[in-house]
């Protein structure tokens, strides 16, 4: 496992322990309003990705729930940034792909474009529309 994947897995584990299992149901329920999800998920995801790319802890956690803010440190942001930048370059933009509901969370799937490539990003939101976790795939 590469150092980048290990670091990002650690970040995901810290901020979303037990949130998403490998066998979670990926089918979105009919009641999920994609426009409503995107109203909070798009700006939160953009700010989070920009904050990570800039190494800016305050910006990275701006939309975070209390658990996310407590778990993420500047050291963790710096390490993740270094690894992402080393492999993918600087953050450019994101593209919304889909959203799903899992237990009491909403998971929004994005494709993030960097100067050297793309990566899948899974953003986990709590019932208040705040970031509870972030996974790079």
Account of the protein in words:
The chain is 43% helix and 27% strand. Helix 1 packs antiparallel against helix 5 (74-88). It has one domain: Nuclear Transport Factor 2, Chain: A. The chain has helices at residues 3-15, 34-54, 57-60, 66-71, 74-88; strands spanning 91-102, 105-114, 117-125, 131-136. By secondary structure, it is an alpha+beta fold. Strands 1-2-3-4 form a four-stranded antiparallel β-sheet.
Q: Helical residue percent?
A: 40-55%
Overall shape: it is globular
Q: Secondary-structure element sequence?
A: HHHHHEEEE
N-C termini distance? 13 Å
CATH class: Alpha Beta
Radius of gyration: 14 Å
State the domain count.
1
| Overall residue-averaged pLDDT value | 85
User: How would you classify the quaternary structure?
Assistant: single chain
Write the layout of secondary structure elements.
Elements: H1 3-15, H2 34-54, H3 57-60, H4 66-71, H5 74-88, E1 91-102, E2 105-114, E3 117-125, E4 131-136
Summary tags:
4-stranded antiparallel sheet; 27% strand; 43% helix; disordered N terminus; Nuclear Transport Factor 2, Chain: A; 137 residues; 4 strands
What's this, in brief?
The chain is an alpha+beta fold and 137 residues long. The chain has 5 helices and 4 strands, in the order H-H-H-H-H-E-E-E-E.
């Amino acid at each position: 496992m590469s150092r980048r994947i290990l670091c990002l897995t650690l970040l995901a584990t810290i901020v979303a322990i037990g949130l998403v299992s490998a066998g979670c149901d990926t089918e979105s329920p009919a009641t999920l309003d994609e426009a409503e999800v995107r109203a909070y998920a798009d700006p939160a995801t953009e700010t989070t990705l920009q904050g990570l790319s800039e190494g800016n802890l305050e910006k990275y956690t701006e939309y975070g729930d209390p658990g996310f803010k407590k778990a993420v440190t500047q050291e963790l942001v710096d390490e993740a940034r270094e690894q992402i930048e080393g492999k993918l370059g600087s953050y450019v933009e994101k593209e919304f792909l889909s959203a799903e509901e899992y237990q009491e969370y909403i998971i929004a799937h994005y494709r993030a474009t960097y100067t050297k490539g793309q990566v899948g990003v899974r953003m986990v939101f709590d019932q208040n529309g705040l970031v509870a976790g972030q996974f790079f795939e």
